[in-house]
Specification:
Layout lengths: L8 E5 L2 H4 L35 H9 L7 H4 L3 H15 L3 E5 L2 H4 L10 H16 L3 E7 L5 H7 L6 H16 L6 E5 L9 H5 L9 H26 L4 E7 L2 E4 L4 H23 L5 H8 L10 H7 L4 E5 L3 E4 L22 E2 L5 E2 L1 H15 L3 E5 L17 H19 L4 E7 L19 E3 L11 E3 L1 H11 L6
Parallel strand pairs: 1-2, 1-12, 2-3, 3-4, 4-5, 5-7, 6-8, 7-11, 11-12
Antiparallel strand pairs: 9-10, 13-14
Helix pairs in contact: 4-6, 8-10, 10-13, 14-15
């Protein structure tokens, strides 16, 4: 008996806004990520550059649309090259392929009644191509792809009306693809709103008087929309499975000082608040104090709590890239939802971008999540962003990526032996694409190299890296040969 169960879903993961391109073709409307410009590393004010904070910023970006560098608009042109790319995924032996549907490709403004047929037809072609190779699509409904119009007119998810717009969109694609897609996710990394309100919820914080009130009210609307999408999916597609998706932020205490232990526990709780609602079906009691002390009042409509309780997800999916260190010392204590920790873990090495590499942390996370929720788990993002060098003979020897993935897959196998029910594993950016956090192309994750730089120069030619054949063998042996 091997460690990985028969039927384990090996594959790779992408997002429409990072690899489709064709932002102004096929009737597609603008999305929130279409407005994010590339900022060179030396000019960045923050670790990440993906927020738009005010109407003034948005108006300037719209005015710069013709001359600025907006990498997520061009992606890597999957829109025109999907057949070539899917053939490469099939050659690797993918059992599943995670992709997202671009909401504004289906409803350009987000609040229309009638969908855009050109957009629907595009995904029909993609799903048919996957079906040809026996690859199961795993489809995210909302992966940082909020139609820009919903930001401009409603300030995103702060407005309750977005629940109806999202449910209408979800029902439209469920009905259209009910014979082609059985695995779905509602919101990608739903907790992103806590530190990036624009990307997570389409909020321009310059419009709101109380930032955290706006964030958590928007999140409540997303929780309700997610639960209603779960209900619709089960009704429209018998036998379907629909999950939630969390950016998992495993935190270790800096020392065995009880203050540090408590700080790590609170970071953990604030991260798992989101899945508590979506998997368990209710708000956890530990958030009551946080809401009270931060003057947050969640406005609920009659029936909301019942909807959340009755329509929980079938499985929990998550991204895992790194772990963090929490301290209870004044001035060092991590803020709730903080994605990056300033405290270094001396026992871990870091990537080119400073993300600390912790394979054993993945096993810890899998065990913790399964102990807490007792539902199937699915790792839908994990990978190493790195600078890749093309040798004179055209080869790309990414042994560092192989080492990273080998160590993480090995710990996944150990967690399965520990009793964790794990459905599958889709590595992030199975083909090089635009970075979500920095809009860089040079931060590469893929098994397939794409000839394009941070400024859009290049042929877009696809080249297999050394890791391509390695992962192909991992899948062929169901994880037995690493």
């Amino acid at each position: 008996m091997g460690r990985f169960p028969e039927g384990f879903l090996w594959g790779g993961a992408t997002a429409a806004n990072q690899f489709e391109g064709a932002y102004n073709e096929g009737g597609k409307g603008l999305s929130i990520f279409d407005m994010v410009q590339f900022v060179p590393k030396e000019e960045r004010k923050h670790d990440v550059e993906m927020d738009v904070r005010s109407d003034e910023e948005l108006e300037k970006l719209l005015a710069d649309s013709g001359k600025g560098n907006f990498p997520k608009r061009r992606g890597i042109d999957f829109y025109h090259r999907y057949q070539e790319d899917i053939a490469l995924f099939a050659e690797m032996g993918f059992k599943t392929f995670r992709l997202s549907i671009s909401w504004p490709r289906i409803f350009p403004n987000g609040d229309e009644q009638e969908p855009n047929e050109e957009g629907l037809a595009f995904y029909d072609r993609v799903f048919d191509e996957l079906q040809k190779y026996g690859i199961e699509p795993l489809v995210t409904l909302s992966h940082y792809e909020i139609p820009l119009h919903l930001v401009q007119k409603y300030n995103g998810w702060t407005d309750r009306r977005l629940v109806e717009f999202f449910v209408h969109y979800a029902e439209t694609v469920f009905k259209r693809y009910k014979n082609k897609v059985k695995y779905w996710l509602t919101f990608n990394e739903i907790n992103i709103s806590a530190f990036s309100p624009y990307i997570g919820s389409g909020i321009l914080v310059g419009r709101v008087a109380h930032k955290e009130q706006a964030i958590y009210q928007a999140l409540h609307h997303q929780f309700v929309a997610s639960a209603r999408a779960v209900k619709a999916c089960h009704e429209i597609i018998p036998g379907s499975q629909i999950g939630c998706m969390l950016a998992r932020l495993e935190a270790y205490p800096e020392t065995c000082n009880p203050d540090d232990i408590l700080a790590a526990l609170e970071v953990d709780q604030s991260n798992l608040f989101f899945t508590d609602v979506q998997v368990r079906g209710s708000y956890p009691s530990f958030m009551n104090r946080y809401f009270r002390e931060n003057d947050i009042h969640i406005e609920m409509l009659p029936g909301d709590e019942e909807i959340l309780r009755q329509h929980t997800v079938d499985f929990l999916s998550f991204s895992y890239y790194m772990t963090m260190v929490a301290s209870g010392a004044p001035g060092k204590r991590m803020e709730k939802g903080n994605f990056f920790s300033g405290i270094q873990n001396p026992y871990l090495e870091a990537s080119d971008w400073g993300w600390q590499i912790d394979p054993k942390g993945l096993r810890i996370t899998l065990k913790k999540l399964y102990d807490r929720y007792q539902v199937p788990l699915f790792i839908v993002e994990n990978g190493l962003g790195a600078y890749d060098k093309v040798e004179e003979d055209g080869s790309i020897n990414d042994d560092y990526r192989i080492d990273y993935l080998r160590a993480h897959i090995d710990q996944m196998g150990e967690a399965i032996l520990d009793g964790v029910e794990l459905m599958g594993y889709t590595t992030w950016g199975c083909i090089d694409l635009i970075s979500a956090s920095t809009s860089e192309m040079s931060k590469r994750y893929g098994f397939i190299y794409v000839d394009q730089d941070d400024y859009g120069n290049g042929t877009l030619a696809r080249t297999k890296k050394k890791s391509f054949d390695w992962y192909k063998n991992v899948i062929a042996t169901n994880g037995e040969e690493l």
